[in-house]
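Weekly structure sync - notes
Attendees: PM, LS, DV (DV joined late)
Agenda: review two folding runs queued last week.

Item 1: First target. Sequence and structure tokens pasted below for the record.
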Amino acid sequence: MKKTFLLLCAGFFACSAVGQQVVVNTQNTSLVVSAPIGEQLKFVYYGNRLSSSDLTVLHDVENSNYNAYPVYGLTCPTEVALAVKHPDGNMTLDMVVDKVDSKQLPDGELTVITLKDKVYPFFVDVCYKAYSDTDVMTIWSEISNKQKKPVMLNQFASAYLPIRRGDVWMSHLYGSWGNETKLMQEPLQAGMKVIKNKDGVRNSHTSHGELMLSLDGKPQENYGNTMGVALCYGGNYKLRVDTHDDEYHHLFAGINEENSAYNLKSNETFVTPELAVTYSAEGLSGVSRNFHKWAREYKIAHGKDLRKILLNSWEGVYFDINQQGMDQMMADIASMGGELFVMDDGWFGDKYKRATDNSSLGDWVVDTDKLPGGIEQLVADAKKHGIKFGIWIEPEMTNTSSELFEKHPEWVIKAPQRDLVLGRGGTQVVLDMANPEVQDFVVKVVDDIMKKNPDIDYIKWDANMAILNHGSQYLPKDEQSHLYIEYHRGFEKACQRIREQYPDLTIQLCASGGGRANYGMLPYFDEFWVSDNTDALQRIYMQWGTSYFYPAVTMASHISAAPNHQTFRTIPLKYRIDVAMSGRLGMEIQPSMMSEEEKALCKTAIEQYKEVRPVVQQGDIYRLVSPYDDLGVASLMYVDTNKDDAVFYWWKTETFCNQHLPRIKMAGLDPEKLYTVTELNRIDNVPLPFEGKQFTGSYLMNNGLEIPYTHHVDYHNMTDYSSRVLRLNSKY
């Protein structure tokens, strides 16, 4: 009885599979559809991997009756994945299976089920790709029009999944600038839950195109049947979960079709973004581990490479760039053991010099008043200090106060018959990436910088404006509704060209902070800026949510000044370091304003981070106590794949007299191995009682360690903050 319950609640089902049964397997999961030729494609199952004996009887016991890719027009009172209008005005589709193909790819196995309309020459390929050595598969659709005239696509989801009703909870991310990736967890109730984006350029400030579904009740981190989905798209998206009067929640995911109706020309194929899907019986963290492994292996540029420790100039000097100041910051980060210096905004402009945010974007020439030796001298200075050099650009944007805009006003996104709507600084506008000339320009921005300075190691790529003017001066009048889609097609083409030319370059996604954290863009980028808010306490919450779908190797996390420049909160340096060390460690500060004691603490932290960097950036995450549980503490850990090395993080999130915090059990260790405990970034006058002691993995997972609520430091150094980072190593 228990086994049957798990099968019913943990999977997705459609009708009885009478006829051709198609099974897509990963290491530990199975997806099953029924695909008899000439009949409708039906969803049967998704969940834990099925045995051959279970597969033989599956069609006898799973009685759901849902199309695997539902279309509009016939028996369609509910939500659908695809809705069209044919050239003759007919708005119906009747799709049946035409053929099934499967082939082995270098990174997995692809199964394509072709559907055709019974009357019209109109086809949909429903594609399932199972990635090798991971428990992630992707689903997408390829929609083809063989009619003589265009077909209007009104809805065009990537995928649909029915989820058996029960005590199902959804975990998803929301927020705003400076407050990105907040975690929301809620039960799925009757009605429609919609998560969407309409920014046009950046799609992860207010919501994220990912979610997790806990199938056994309230979400738990390390146990419980849990499913996760992530839409691999950088543009406007929509995730719909419809719950009406049947036994299932109905999940649809794809491009947001609002104001984006697409005219599919004769013999044209419209390819929707991939929806990455995974399943784990090990709770939310189990789903995260699946996504992280898949991402590092297949979906992030240089995902298996360790990231450098850097100093970014932005919060240190803002627009006040000059040659001597940059050289001094390079010397400072090099002296602390850093590996890279990144010069941020403010270095460019000739006729219009970049002194604030209201001019010069598009004029990517060095301001020789600020940098008389040019970028070449900065690269040479970095080499002198034994570090690498990086630079900030925002190539998709321009200002009306710029030579580029004066020369090419037709390149910007602008509605006909309307005045420009202006963004940041009262002058910023967005270049039309649908235009091939703009794509060439964006590629040339990178090309000009790199050809003159081939030793540049890192580019920070920003995007600080939404599409506020719906109108393309390039697209014809009958394709104005293609703007959002064509923008991202053009952006991807430019990125592909840049990556072909500079495959080893590290590129960060920045977009007014965390506006571009998505798997549609990460194949061309190495990491993203989580948020412009560098406040360590708030970063615990933001990085916690981000970790649901993205590994630490992608999360730029910087030590910044106190008081913090966004919240004005004063947080001790030790705490700021301990938070930053849980992601890709960097610094966002003016070192000349730091004391020698502070520099020494950062130097030690950088040295110790280098030792644990492989575990943090490439290891498996186990989230232990959530800051959202309001228990006064947050804790997580990373464990390497061999379970030899681990890093445990503990942050106190609030302070009260006589407070009581939970003792935290660890996870992910080998119960039989002995782990030596070492505290990193220690500031206490005396070591912790377990410093240098050995414990079995079993003890640490069953009991944890008693973490002091405060630091044992001199009275004048006491604060209300406390944090610990422990290394657990079985090889000492």
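Item 2: Second target, run right after the first with the same settings.
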Amino acid sequence: MSETTGKKPAVKKKVQRRGKRKVSIRRRILTILAILIPAALIAGVILYFLVFRGSAGEEITEVPEQNNTLIQEKPEEEKQETGIGTDIINHILTAESAVEKSYQKRPKTVEITEENAADFAKLESCLIDGSAGKVNVKVKGEGIPASDDKYYYLFALNTYENTISDDAEYLSRAYKDEGTEFSTPLNYNYSTSKLYKKFVVAVKKDGKYLAVTGPRYITNPEAIAKYGSVYQVPATKKGLLVDPNKLRGSELDDLGIKQAAYNIPVARLLGPSTHSAYPTIQYTYNGRTYTLNGQVIAEYDLVFSTLTAKGISTTAIILNNYSGSYPQLIHPKSRSYGAAPYYMFNGAEESGVEYMAAIGTFLAERYSGNSHGRISNWVIANEINARKEWNYMERVDTSEYVEEYAKAFRVFYTAIKSVSSSARVYMPIDQQWDRNLKNNTNYDGRDIVDEFNRNIKSKGNIDWGLSQHPYNVPLTEARIWKSNKLVTHSADTSMITMANIEVLTNYMAQDAYRTDDGEVRSIILSEQGYTSTAGEALQAAAIAYAYYKVENNPHIDGFLLNRETDASEEVAQGLAFGLNHANGSPKQSYNVYKYVDTPNREQYTEFAKSIIGISSWSEILR
């Protein structure tokens, strides 16, 4: 063996020691790089020096056996030029320290369990960007959920769905953080529309999607509305449930009516027309076509266009009457009962949601322009706390009942507001407030209001209003002012009538019930009447009493008196509510109501003070 060959082991060993030192450095740098991933700029700098500047000094080249050239160490100055160098090492270590501090500030990772998954994070908003045609969703949580990967996933569920199905496809995904945003196309008026969906955010856990937020609906459907200032601000609060037979006459003008209410039983709208002069209307919405009765629509066109032309602000009451041809509108738990006039709307099935969305949109489009009249207010159903009589559904607990109503309400609200941004949409209750009866077959209005408010806020707060019917107790008693143990001036009163109507408005003025802007929600008294059975003077005095109280209450936007003309079926029950007798002749209450909101009212209401037992109207005001 030659001399050169004999020196190989010593030289190679020394080179290997250099290699070990450099390998140690490389391991440390790799550790640093794992931390530096979020800081892309720093990582780029490090990679540059490691890969392009330092690689030549780190590699060890094996000497082929046939090559007997002596391997010599490079001079110290050459090693400094081709190696990493002290300055670069110090720079990396300084960066490591800074990034470690930043890394320590990152949100903590939280293990997800069945107990904490559902409300781990919160969907802060689901808002339409009208100009972009997208839905923007914001989610916020405390910490980052541990899952199979680094993503949050956005899903859209149907109104009637409560879980993410195994075959569901996510809409979008984003890196998990304490604050994350998503964006997805709205697809308005397509079969893939997300307007009525509720959104949830999930993580992938053990290969399946697990929701880590509660559901939230779009809360600004008005962002895509084609009609803006549709709402007719009434000159006064004075309103009436109008008699369609007197609609085209002069009576409404003579009475000076500024607001009117009219019922729309939705099943009447559906199906082909049987009159050649009024052809069937084919209406397409979200990719489906619906058949509407042209003759029935023409009737409503006449009503609403006439009221609008008279300068009257109109309230439409959307009712779910039964039709064997359209059972999909009836809630599954409402189809077993045939005696009630109206039923719970069906937000529990796809077909029910589709029909409600189409009907609500059609009506809003039809009655938001000038061609067919305008509707300013929409009341969804009738006295929903009286579920057995007016909004039938099997008796369930309050939260389930309200959940089913809230589904339907939100569909109609979204449909209407997506067309007419200024429209107001109301939830209705009667005068039964806080009775707490044992084995009650209905619900207390207060419980309905509380649960509805909680339900709506938890899934995306919207500007719902309250419609209440402060009838007397009993209905056959015209004297509002007569003492009754069921009518008190505290929040736990059994009944709310015009004698204690401030209980309702004070309750709704609490912070918990206000809109997100801090405003008291719109309240209308959309139905109340006083019988003349015990005398026309008592009825007239009751109307004056009620209107003075309404006028003095800033939170009441409308007072719709029931009714213009006596209805024979009500008169038979002792309820002669009309301003006119059935034969059309006026009662004393006609002139009282005509002048009650005018400068001449004292002349027509003075008589009522002695009947009520007061010397000044201020005595009844609270």
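Discussion on item 2: The CA atoms of residues 385 and 443 lie 5 Å apart.
Action: LS to circulate a short write-up before next sync.
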